[in-house]
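Reader question, answered in our methods column.
A reader sent in the components of a multi-part assembly and asked whether the whole thing could be modeled at once rather than chain by chain. We filled in our standard form and ran it. Here is what they sent:
COMPLEX SIZE: three components
ENTRIES:
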Amino acid sequence: MTAETADGSSGIDGEDPSIRDILATEIGKTDFRIVISTMLAIYALFIVLTFLGGGDINSAGSSIIRLTFLFAAYGILTLALNLHWGYTGLFNIGVAGFMAVGVYTMAIVSTSPDAVSGTGLGLPLIVGVIAGMIMAALVGLVAAVPALRLRADYLAIVTLGLSEIIRLTLNSATLSNWTVSVFGFGTGGGSGIDLPARPTDALLNTAFGDVLVDVLGTFLRPSVIRRSLWVLVMIGFVIAVYWLLVRVGNSPFGRVLKAIREDELVAQSLGKDTRWFKIKVFMLGCALMGLGGILWQGSQGYVSPDSFRPIVTFYVFVALIIGGSGSNTGSLVGSILFVGLLFEGPRTLANIVSGSLSLGSAPGTFAGAMAPLASLEITPLLAYFMNNISALRFILLGVVLVIIMQRRPEGVLGHRTETAAAISLDRPGPARTNGGESDE
Amino acid sequence: MDVSDVITRGKVTIREQPLLAIAVLATALLALDLLARLAGIEVPLAGGRTFGGELSMGRFSGLVWNGIIVGLIFGLAGIGLSMTYSILNFANFSHGDLVTTGAFTGWGAALLVAGWGIGDIGHLLLVRPGSGASPNEIGASIVQAPLSILIGVIIAALATVVVAVIIDRIVYKPMRDRGGIPLLIASIGAALALRYILQFVYGGRNRGVTSTQDVNTEIAGFSVNMHELTLVIVAISLMLAMHFMLQRTKLGKAMRAMADNKDLALVTGIPTERVVTATWVLGGALAGVAGYLYVLERGTIEFNIGWFLLLFIFAAVILGGIGSIYGAIAGGFVIGFVHEVSLIWIPSDFNAAAAFLIMILVLLYRPQGIFGGVTTA
Amino acid sequence: MSDATTEPAEAAPESERSLSGDVPLRVENLRKTFGGIVAVDDASFAVEAGSLTGLIGPNGAGKSTTFNCITGAHTPDSGTVTFQGEDITGRRPDQIATEGLVRTFQIARELEEMTVLENLMLAPQGQIGEQLWRSVTPGARVEVIEQERELRERVWETVDFFEIDHIAHDEAGTLSGGQRKLLEMARAMMTEPDMLLLDEPLAGVNPTLEEKLLERIHDLREQGYTFLLVEHDMDVIMENCEHVIVMHQGSVLAEGEPSMVKNNDRVIEAYLGEIDV
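And here is the structure of the entire assembly that came back:
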């Protein structure tokens, strides 16, 4: 993987290629460092907040596990969306719908036939996960074939409409108990569907699990340990997806995607059959969105159509835009910042403020909060603010989105160039025809 | 020769426009089925399904009436969306929340007037956010307090205009030339902020607003819901006013020119910023009134009613052809009918999905709208 | 002015140019309308192999539309386009480019956020790494990298040939107008075309760069490439092309050697007519 900032590369043109090469590797490492240091900074922030709020090491660990879970969940989805929008310029705002297809297909394949809500075939989980990804890709194909020739804004409306159709269908009572002869395909309708247990949970009941609980159990609850095992699996998937997409991006295939984003007619005029590239990339992205949905919403024992409202898509979009669309590293950084500062941060902060200031019971209405201002009493208003932190969080999200689009559309990391080629494109020097350009 | 000629031509049509042929065939089948149902004829088909069946004229006309009501809301709100889409060149995802803005501000005013002296001002102005005087105690209905309802309409329009213009100045004006997609994304941000500001101020509770006493009466032998009748009259009057504005006034002509071709309009010296502001004023006012009337009809209010309407409004606009206000009105009716009349055939879980599906199909196969390339005229 | 005749006034006798091997591109009775406005009206001409042919005409003569019809950006209403003996009428742009007929654009359409090198690496045909699985699968990627190395060699040769090596790492969006035109021609060359269609390659280019661009075109022509050049500037065409096609109001008004065309009364009238308006 070679990544370099435009600023970094412009000053070293024409210098000795070996210096360039060293710099490129250094900057490549910096990418990894940026992700890790952003993550550590958010961890540090939350540990401080937890202790300020009077929490112990257990709650700090719990909050870190929760953060990491969300980092990973949004990370995968943001990477997949980056492949669509950042790389290829396909404005897909139906992410939630493709997630839903993945999760529900997995559920119908792998949930036990005698579940409380919904019915499945009870096949092994791995079959369900693969089926979920394939089904998400196929739904993507059905949408892609006619829709990919549309203008970006039309594609946006089509994908949003599609994701709502998917959600409404899953929500329908008509399909909630659908069975074909003895096989159940019930979605459970509005009451949701039961899901298979996380495979890592069983690990805790083995000898290995006992050792783990013995070692870590002194300062972490078993439930936290159980969740952290799953989070490790998710981190593994994030790394795998990142690896995959960096390879896709740094290849002749990725080069054509970038060209489609910039100007599709130019790509065509250079002999690229852009239709196939778009269909393939759309299907791949949809499959990864299905996977992201399975790892996230599919790992909690139960899911309902409410988890796939369009707002989920917008969350993923905000994460991508913060990090800078077009950059895989940016996608991860954006996910971490979004989860830490916009999604979890405000709530944690509000808990601490209302816990430490003893604001009393919050007024039930805005009028009740404003009226005491006449007598210069600000506490009720503050309490109302803390009590309605979820609304304020959405307002913050909207404002941040607008500000980024106005001031910094390239994302927090600034303008980045992740060269779309399988090798470094520097002039090949006679001395080093084989050096410094190994596979990634 | 004639017959074979017709057949050949038919074959050519089917080959060249298979989707059109399918659409025509499906519509014909549904119409036939509808007639059969109304006549009470039932023809058994395979698998326990039947063609035709039982449908009372009363239920049918009820569904059609509902379709008109809903269609007017979609169309009224759609006019503004269509205008901003063509004149400012982006799909405005915050339009639904302008609808909500009108609903809350308008009903705050209406309750304040109707319930003056009953309960405290905050309770009325914030449209009953918590416990307090009940809708029937406040008595906001066209029968009990017609003036309050009328004032509500005006406030809904004015307040939404103010909000729309402020959002334009803060959010869209600095990025006027940034292209449709950055603006679209910014409008998603504006939508989120606006929706949750409304929730923050007015509260998240779904609550009743209108008084229902004596609203259902009989006029000339027909049972009529006065609120629905008010909705129809106000909506149609506004649509007519819009029509005269566009056809007769200088501003209207300038707006039509801009919708057709922005560059041309710039060259010919139409003051674009003024036209842009006018677009927000008109579009915002109509959206606000649409939200207000929607609540008048359904009787309850919640902070995300407009957001839930947004896709339907988009569907109406797209069906009618983006940029055409008459198209938006007609598209509103079509989507309204699809939403209501489709209940004859499909379970109520799926009528919204059916409307979205039609929108998607139109975007895919006839992006200029079902009424052809007739632009804002 | 009367509606122009459909017959080229000074056309060379048909028999001389009928061998498909010598005439890679032939346009016959091409017609294209946009909602009632006739942009190209029954245009016919042919381009000889290895020639530098110019296509000129006043504004609105239908040059760019003809160009777009040849390269697949537009589908003509009627008429045929034959390239190397094969009917390519109505094919997609990518199919036509794959046949070896590659174009540049009037307003340089470089891929702004891609570097000059990326732009050039994009162009070559038959890149195995454009198959997704090859680029991703560990074993198969070795071959992709091998091919990338070969392409990189060619890219740097091309960069040197067009003398844009000093801006090779810059993003195309940061280049000047003239540099963009150079990049665009270099990119078209990377596809290894049989014939190049250049749409106003000199528009908005400063004189120094214009010199350089023309030099490159002549160099390449000597290497055996065929060029069809659309230009608004009559002098450039007259000085550089050996065969000139003049379009007016959608059809071919005159055709022949520059000196003959230059003195054609109808051509003079057409150009004067434009000046008068």
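What stands out: Chains B and C do not touch (no CB pair under 8 Å). Chain B has a mean pLDDT of 85.
Send us your own complexes using the same form.
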